[in-house]
Specification:
By secondary structure, this protein is of the alpha+beta class. It has one domain (29-143): Immunoglobulin-like. 14% of the residues lie in helices and 33% in strands. Strands 2-3-6-5 form a four-stranded antiparallel β-sheet, with no helix packed on it. The chain has a three-stranded antiparallel β-sheet with strand order 4-7-9, with no helix packed on it. The protein has a two-stranded parallel sheet with strand order 1-8. A hairpin with a 4-residue loop joins β5 (89-94) and β6 (99-104). It is globular and about 45 Å long. It starts with a helix and ends with a strand.
Length: 147
């Protein structure tokens, strides 16, 4: 009888712990290691060829973003097969359209070159307006038309 009583008490404790473990805990910042930066559209398109050398690179998000996290460290453009520093640019965010724009400082992109655009995820990457971080960066490539 004493064993049954202890077994029931132990079972009740385990059930209570399991119930507490299922209750979400509020956090100032949430991260989903599996989620990518929530981009729903990019310009130029992934893999596009023949892009104008005057094109601004843009990404549209599916939610409001923290504009303070959209900067030269989190929004990058570099020549695709280069380890050189990213292209210099002015980065702006239009909250009404949820669009970040990378406007190269040079008068234009290099004709005939392939570029890789990156919007950085992770703890040091972009964040949503609610402080959410994203485990995976958004990366896409395109090629500028020759001449």
């Amino acid at each position: 009888m004493a064993r049954t009583k202890h077994f029931r008490a132990l079972t009740a404790i385990v059930a209570a712990v399991a119930l507490v473990a299922m209750v979400p805990v509020a956090s100032a910042t949430t991260t989903s290691a599996a989620s990518a930066v929530p981009v729903i559209d990019v310009t130029p398109d992934e893999g596009e060829r023949g892009v104008s050398k005057f094109t601004d690179v843009q990404a549209v998000f599916d939610r409001d973003m923290d504009p303070g996290t959209l900067n030269e460290k989190t929004v990058k453009l570099r020549k695709k097969d280069s380890n050189k520093p990213p292209e210099e640019a002015t980065i702006s965010y239009d909250a009404a359209t949820r669009t970040v724009t990378f406007d190269p400082t040079r008068p234009h992109l290099h004709p005939g070159r392939s570029y890789r655009a990156t919007i950085v995820g992770g703890e040091d990457g972009v964040k949503s307006a609610t402080g959410e971080t994203f485990g995976q960066s958004k990366v896409w490539s395109f090629r500028v038309r020759r001449g």
